[in-house]
Amino acid sequence: MTVIELSHVNKIFNAGKNNQFIAVKDVTLAVEPGQVTVLKGPSGSGKTTLLTLIGCMARPTSGRIVLREFGSSAFPGIGETDEVEITSLPERFLTGIRRTAFGFIFQHFNLVRGITVLENVMLPAYPTGEKQAAVRKRAVKLLEIFDIARHAASRVDLLSGGEIQRVAIARALINNPQVLIADEPTAHLDTRLSREFMDIVGAFKAEGKTILIASHDPIVFDSHLADLVVEMRDGCVISGGTAQ
Amino acid sequence: MILHPAVLALLIGSSLTGLMLLYAVWYGIRIVARWDIKSGSELQLGLEKRTYLISTILSYALAFQLLSLFLFIYTADQLHTLFSGAMCAAGTLNVNSFGYPLLIMKIVNFLLAGLWLIINHADTRGYDYPLIKIKYALLIAIAPLVLLETGFQFAYFLGLHADVITSCCGSLFSLDRPGIAGDLAGLPPVPMEALLYAGMAATACAGLYFQQKGRGGYLFSTVSFLTFIICVVSLISFICLYIYELPTHHCPFCILQKEYGYVGYALYITLLAGGVAGIGTGALQPLRAQGSMICVIPALQKRLTLLNLIMYLLFTLIVTYRLYFSSLRLGG
């Protein structure tokens, strides 16, 4: 059973105006659970927009997106195995899904400057109301896994590029999401760090997590880890469903 | 027209509420006619996005509608000094033929606006828009009444002239005066007292039963509404007499004045809030099983029932205090 299903999804910015821009055009896609799906394509092909639609950060202009078995009960009335159509959900429920179902790794990592590594990692867990001691314990464990526990008390401004990337990954995992979304995660990394990132992706895959990556980096889309590579151009899927 | 700040506030507030309602009704008609949650069309997604905006706008507009009843009564009370013969809001409302119909419309719209806000509150807590069509159908029904009220309000305030000589409560709520006010004033106090306490006891029993068992929602709502009517009648029939300590003064408006500690506001607020909560509980009863409402409505009904019981209890306590400490004794 697919974990994420997109049906005829369109995203048009400034619809009906002179500067109308079609970012995503009639995309139908199925993402399987526990697999690595890579959205491949040049800049402006609609990869990031598609990720934001799947990750409940924006709504499509038309089309529907269904999530299944997204791991935890994001709001009352929905069970762990239920399916939920996310494009029609009121905002109050989307926040719950964003918080519990998805972990985001942004292109520029978007860590909050001026606070420590540990605080950055703990940040997405604050709204859940979970006890701070439990969140702190989990955050420290994640930092240990990524071998950056020694920087826990350091401000993120002082970290190197590779360390920042690891903090961003740890932060994405703090709420134990079922689906990990990474937008151009290797865009600012050298080859060694990019390969390290793919090793981490391999570990997540082994744990059964579903991973969605938007990238035009061959290290990512040519990786043996990629189960499905979806090629996009001008907002359309021009090839997809190709098992690697 | 009298350029009193409260009059201007009411007219501007009602005009804005009317405009917001017109905007909402335009989308409401489209939602009732075209809503299809299974469709992923641009129209459907546009309606879904738009409904948040409309719901938020209407929450504020109808919250003002609730407040405007009290602002209107306050304004009518404040203006009575400008009219010869007027001693309280009763006289101000009698200055022209729009006053009392406007007051009745405001009370009806208060109840309907409260009901809509309750249904909207329930709907926004569901993830699958289970009450969306009901909510907007109700809005389409309410809108003409609110717009009519706005029209009446303009007609009433524009028709206020300081040279008018008016009749006031002494005449309007007199036993000798034919009509509803006179009939209500003429009801026997002692049986009405018994009826009021019986109504409150019945509401409390039905409410507690519903709270405990989750059954009897319609019964509680009906008993609560009947008690609401009994309370309104009791206010004119005997409660006012004890407050004024005058056996012939039945005016339901003088109790809003400083001389009586503004007790009228406390009585009307508790009564109307309790009434809306009771009606809302019954209105939600048939919607309990619709989609995600199964997780929302039972808990909301319990909160509304509790609110009703607390408000009616406060009303009863205020009335009992006034009855007990009044120098007037009726039927003894």
List keywords for this structure.
heterodimer, A: 244 residues, alpha/beta, 6-stranded mixed β-sheet, 4-stranded antiparallel β-sheet, B: 332 residues, mainly alpha, 2 domains, 0% strand
What does this molecule look like?
- The complex is a heterodimer of chains A (244) and B (332).
- With 244 residues, chain A is α/β, with parallel strands linked by helices.
- Helices cover 29% and strands 27% of the residues of chain A.
- The longest helix of chain A has 16 residues, at 191-206.
- Chain B is an all-alpha fold and 332 residues long.
- Chain B folds into two domains: 1-163; 168-332.
- Helix content of chain B is 72%, strand content 0%.
- In chain B, helix 1 runs antiparallel to helix 5 and helix 9 runs antiparallel to helix 10 (263-284).
- The longest helix of chain B is centred in the first third of the chain and has 38 residues, at 42-79.
- The A-B interface holds A 7-10, 59-64, 75-78, 84, 87-93 and B 37, 40-42, 44-45, 48-49, 52, 124, 126-129, 292, 294-296.
How many E-type strands of chain A?
A: 10
Percentage of residues in DSSP E strands of chain B: under 5%
Count of distinct structural domains of chain B: 2
Helix and strand content put the structural class of chain A at alpha/beta
